[in-house]
Amino acid sequence: MSKIIAVTMGDPAGISPEIIIKALAEGDLNGAPAVVVGCAATLSRVLALNITPQVEQRVRDSVKEAHFATGIVNVSDEPLADPDSLKPGVMQKQACDLAWRCVKRATELALTGKIQAIATALLNKEALHSAGHLYPGHPELLTHLTDTKDIALRKFLDTLNQTRIKTVIGIADTFLRRVGFEKARIAVAGVNPHAGENGLYCILRQSQYHYCRSAVYSHFR
């Protein structure tokens, strides 16, 4: 059996339903083992607008019933309270509540082993808050639903060293040269938004900050 990806609908009043249909109807993802967790009526409305490739939408009572083939989009229906009253482009409580329910349901499917991965479509964070779901975004919502601690970034920081940073920059530089960029400009992202304050607000220890900076400078000299 294929490893199944649950694709959460995101905000049904936004562009997410259109993006999902296009993504699953075009290119290599056409026929991919993905099940959309969202409002089937909303997807039908988008398909009726003829702004996406036409696919056959199949609503499944269970993920294990899904059949993956080109031209088919499998849907685990999580209906809106009132699909007919949905207004595209307008923030609505029922839309943000659905976005939350879709992530919750997908998480439950993952925790019970019915799906193996989750891909989340766009949601409106302001709308999410207006519906009473006070999360900054998907990471915090998933952290809550899975009862885990958000410590991945902090663990990552302990792996940073000059050698690793220079190696990764070198890999990028070598690849770019192979595809024709002899003097490529490589941007090295800071760990946090304050990475450019000369280390003043850096969440790294000062020693870590300076050897990270030294690694970048030494490579480009």
Note down, in words, how this protein is organized.
The protein has 221 residues and is α/β, with parallel strands linked by helices. Helices cover 41% and strands 10% of the residues. The chain has eight helices and five strands; from the N terminus they run E-H-E-H-E-E-H-E-H-H-H-H-H. It has helices at 16-25, 40-48, 93-111, 125-130, 138-145, 152-157, 162-178, 206-220, and strands at residues 5-8, 34-38, 56-59, 72-77, 117-120. A five-stranded parallel sheet has the order 3-4-2-1-5, with helices on both faces. Helix 7 packs parallel to helix 8 (206-220). The radius of gyration is 22 Å and the shape is globular. The termini are far apart. The model has no long low-confidence stretch (mean pLDDT 85).
Number of helices: 8
Spatial order of the strands in the main sheet? 3-4-2-1-5
How would you spell out the order of helices and strands? Answer: EHEHEEHEHHHHH
Mean pLDDT: 85
- Report low-confidence residues grouped into runs of 5 or more: none
Our measurement of the CA-to-CA distance between the termini, rounded to an integer number of angstroms, reads: 51 Å
Task: Characterize the biggest β-sheet.
Answer: 5 strands, parallel
Q: Which structural category do the helix and sheet elements fall into?
A: alpha/beta
Global morphology:
globular
Cα-atom radius of gyration: 22 Å
Number of strands: 5
Strand content: 5-15%
Percent helix? 40-55%
